[in-house]
């Protein structure tokens, strides 16, 4: 144990351990980096099985990020975890409307969750939108409705809310659909997982592909 | 699935499911709420086995919080996840020094991690200190050294870094020691888990015990 080991070195060794423990399992390029980073952030190898990717989801997500996408989160925790410097370097930004006063007021007046209203407001934003939902199934449910209504066409939906009520069903709505998605099937997920997936895309672009 | 179900109702039903699935397992009062909230935030029942509590750790942590403790985190994600309104209502606050410029400068000059330096700076703060470490094993290692040197005497150490390098060892240093602790043994943990444990103590105080 060495207190002088730097985070970059720790991370490199961590990924080597993850690779070794995944053994003979293989993933498509791009997908592999996402799966490993989620395992890195959770120490939970279940994500090697849970994570589902629509065709070319990683490619489409990265294309949106290089086009200056807005990443919409449903918690300030996910917002805090996203590498916003790297995102800004690509011309993008990350937002969370959960603490927005107008959202809170409207949610109260209508008797719906703030997560629901925050998705409606986010859907009106300009430019490519990447949704990173790590907490609220009601956000994911409302987002799916908005897509079906034609009100929004996300470049990518990262659907990884965690929990026991409505969560599994909210995620299943996207599986096999036309909207590009990265979904953690089942109960698991979280704001940390949502941020890790966004960062896995950013790191591929900035550290490997030279954007 | 009901988009109008409010978060408080979802949470209540979630805890009922967690209680049911824990089956015959029992935990001491106070501990039970912490274990269940961590499972609620991760959907990972491993925490029913991983979490280790020193004698009266929950009681001591709550006593510190009612005395206006400063909660020191090692990530802005954990900071974002803590219920800061409730903490402020008890006269406390939460801080993360990882993005502090003086910390960054000193870490670079000395060739150590920012996590290490942030613990040294936090150790000098006044009043009861609760450390909530969800990410950096080097933070936990340096904190243990500072305790051994007599430089700090935390009211509670929440030691739940996640990962594959140095993490298990950093947590084991505290097990059986004199400093009150809540430790997630093994590789698992995270900023979300650290925040959930702090919140579990706050909710006990504010919602149940009327502080």
Number of strands of chain A: 6
Nearest-angstrom radius of gyration of chain A? 17 Å
The largest sheet of chain A, given as strand count, sense and whether it forms a barrel, is: 6 strands, mixed
The ordered string of helix (H) and strand (E) elements of chain A is HHHEHEHHEHHEHEHEH
Oligomer: homodimer
Determine the number of helices of chain A (DSSP H or I, runs of at least 4 residues): 11
Query: What best-fitting shape of chain A do the alpha-carbon axes yield?
Result: globular
Which chain pair shows the most residues in contact? A-B, 48 and 48 residues
- Structural class, judged by helices and strands of chain A? alpha/beta
Low-confidence stretches of chain A: none
Q: Approximately how much beta-strand content do the residues of chain A carry? A: 5-15%
Mean pLDDT metric of chain A? 95
